[in-house]
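Blinded run. Sample ID left blank on purpose so nobody reads anything into the name before looking at the predicted structure. Input follows.
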Amino acid sequence: MMLRLLSAEGYRLRKSKSFYICAAVMVSFVFVVYFMLLQADRIQRGEAENGTAGVVVSKEDGQMLGEAGSIWDEIGIFDVMRQEFSGGLAACVMAVYVSVIVIGAYSCGMVKNIVGKGSPRPVIYLARLFMAIASSVAVTLIGIIAVLAGGVLFIGKSAFEGNFWQYLFVYCGLQILMAAALVAVYVLTSEITRSMAAGISVGIGVAVLPEPILTSADLICEKYGFTPSQFWLVSRSGSCPVSDFTTEYIIETVIVAAVWFLVAAGLGIWHFCRTDIK
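Blinded prediction complete.
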C-alpha cells in the first residue's frame, strides 16, 4: 500500500510545475552569487569601476583597487555553498515548495479521495511526507550541483584540490539530513493550516523568525556555555562547518535532525488522524 501511495504522490509531483520552479530558483540564486563575485573580481583587478552592477568592493588599508589579486584566490566553492544554505533563502524556498505540494493535495481533492478508499491515515501521511522529503532533497542536490558547475566555470580545477571531495560529501550529507528534518516541520505546518496563503506564510515565518530570536538567546546564554540557536535546523544549517568535522558535531547534528523529524512527523500523524478531511 505504501508503494502505491508513493507512486501516486510521485505522479502528482511530476505533473506539477512547483518542483521545476523551485529548482530554477535555487540555480538562479547560485549564479547570481557567482555573477556578483565575478563583478567584484573585475572591480578588484581594476577592470571595472567600483559600484558596477551594484557591486561595491572595499579598499584595504594602503591598497588601491587594481593592485590586489583575483578574488577567486580568496573565494572557494564552499563559500558559495554556504551562501546557499545561510540567510534562510534555501529554507524559504523549501517552505514555499512544501506548502504548495502538501496543501495542493487538499485543494485538488486527492487526499479526500485516498482517505475515502480506506487507506490507513498514518500510511497516507507518511507517504506524503517521504515524497515531500525526496523531492525537496532533489531540489537541494540540484542547487549543490549548480554550485559545483559554477566552480568549474569561474574558479577552475584548483577549487577541487586537497580534501575537497571528502569535506563535500560530509557537508552535503549534513545539509541534506537537516533539510529532511526541516521538510517534516513544513509538512506539519501545512497539514495544520491546510490553506495555501496561511501555509506559505507560516512556513516562511518558521524559516525566518526563529533564527534572530535564538541568536539573541545565544547572547543571554553565552555565559552558561549554551547556544540555543544550534538546536534549530535553519541556524545549524547556516553555521555548519565546511572542513575539519568532528565526530561530536556530526553525532549532535544527527540527533538534532532526528528529534525534529520524529516530533514533527509524530504530531503530523496525530493531527491528520484526528481531523476531518474537507
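Unblinding after everyone has recorded impressions. Residues 50 and 57 are 6 Å apart (CA to CA).
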